[in-house]
Amino acid sequence: MSYIAKPKVSHPKSPRNELGLTERDYEGAVSTLCAGCGHDSITAALIQAVFELSIEPHMLGKMSGIGCSSKTPAYFVSQSHGFNSVHGRMPSVTTGANAANNELTYIGVSGDGDSLSIGMGQFAHVIRRNLNMCYIIENNGVYGLTKGQYSASADVGSTAKKGPANRQMPIDPVSTAIGLGATYIARGFSGDKKQLVPLIKGAIAHKGFALLDVISPCVTFNDHQGSTKSYAHTREFYHHVIEADFVPPAKEIVAAYEEGAAMPVEMHDGSKIVFRKVDKAYDPTSRESAFSYLRSSVRAGEIVTGLLYIDQEAGDMHDLSGSVKRPLAKLPYTELNPGKATLAKVMNGYR
Ligand SMILES: Cc1ncc(C[n+]2csc(CCOP(=O)(O)OP(=O)(O)O)c2C)c(N)n1
Ligand code: SF4
């Protein structure tokens, strides 16, 4: 925890993105989380990702629920929009925001307790709707903010600081999301920024629901021997199934993907995600094989990371509901309200 204010100036030679902004322009408030909390490493990866994607701060909507994890949006891009909603209800608030203005980039940051315990119903439905958002679960297996009770992602046999080991089956967000039809699914680790940044960039560029489950150890309540979400356990059982690079839509670097085992996947904005298969048997474009691979990895005790599944064909919520392209928030009142005569005509059609 640090109370030292961040300096406002940046070095004149700091790298600038396409908008002329530096990484410093994408920072937020000083974190009040415990020193060493995995969530702060994810914040650092988020700052790098949105800086490199040159997202205009006022075009970003940061959404969250309740928990230590849900404080993350306060710590990056302070000049953007943010909404800290009720516990587990971030998906519906984001759905409303996206329905009103589909031009913003939405990044939702949630916890395993926020998403998989109290918010499980909302988590399921936002996936079914294929809402165009990047949804990050900062997964530590406990309720950090309320002092370390097991969450729904705690593994069987995992221990807390005190008391008996957990005996309830965990909910794996990744397998759940595959079953529910999510169109971009990845898993990362807060201790591996190199892998995390391209996964975040890919999730933001993806049109539709992008889930990023990030193992993010809670150093205060869940970083001991016996925890399966500790730094030591994650490092030991960590398995990269795929390595991903994010290639922005610029012609001169397109050649970067033409390598032996690399496989480029084009996103809707023209950018590309380039996979290098670490495990040759893995096919991230097949829902069935991704699901069975993940189930066998769970049995083997592996923590599989990388881009695990992608479907670029499915339309997002607006495509599926046939809503107007222009954001509702920008439609003039006369178009939003067609008037009594038009309404009467519509009603007559039902008689
Ligand atoms: C309706 C409601 N029930 C319970 C709580 C208490 N509460 C606050 S945060 C939290 C759990 C957060 O855990 P998680 O989402 O895993 O985030 P972490 O703190 O571990 O990052 C709970 C149960 C609440 N704020 N509101
Ligand atoms: S209690 Fe755990 S999750 Fe919360 S800030 Fe501290 S280390 Fe992070």
Write up what this structure looks like.
The structure is a single chain. Mean pLDDT is 91; it is low at 253-260. The strands form three sheets. An eight-stranded mixed β-sheet has the order 2-1-3-4-8-7-13-9, with helices on both faces. Strands 10-12-11 form a three-stranded antiparallel β-sheet. Strands 5-6 form a two-stranded antiparallel ribbon. It is α/β, with parallel strands linked by helices. Helix 2 (90-100) runs parallel beside helix 4. The chain has helices at 38-52, 90-100, 112-118, 120-128, 173-180, 193-205, 231-237, 287-299, 317-321, 333-336, 340-348, and strands spanning 60-64, 81-84, 105-111, 133-139, 142-143, 149-150, 184-189, 209-215, 238-240, 242-247, 262-266, 272-277, 303-310. The chain has one domain: Thiamin diphosphate (ThDP)-binding fold, Pyr/PP domains (Rossmann fold, 3-Layer(aba) Sandwich), CATH 3.40.50. The structure holds thiamine diphosphate and iron/sulfur cluster (SF4). The site of iron/sulfur cluster (SF4) has 12 residues, from loops. Keywords: Oxidoreductase.
